[in-house]
Design goal:
It comes from Paracoccus broussonetiae. This protein has about 90 residues and is α+β, with helices and mostly antiparallel strands. The protein has 3 helices and 5 strands, in the order H-E-E-E-H-E-E-H. Helix content is about 30%, strand content about 20%.
Amino acid sequence: MNISRTEQRVLHVLALGGRIHHERTDGAKITAITCVTREGTVLSDCTLSVFSRLRKRRLIESRSGSPYRISKRGRLSVRAQLDNQG
């Protein structure tokens, strides 16, 4: 499966314990998202289009209205990379 660089970056943050908070309108459509790392910083690379692509491929999931986290399929798809907290 071809995953872009920004999608890989978001999946890597989620694999390290991050989450994606979402906001909905009156209907069921998601209008705004915020990707938060484990430390509490916001990842600016995570846009609504990247989020929808990850969700469409079932690489992220939400259970009973909780924030989106990486799915098992996403964990298997993410490429290993060094943790750049140096």
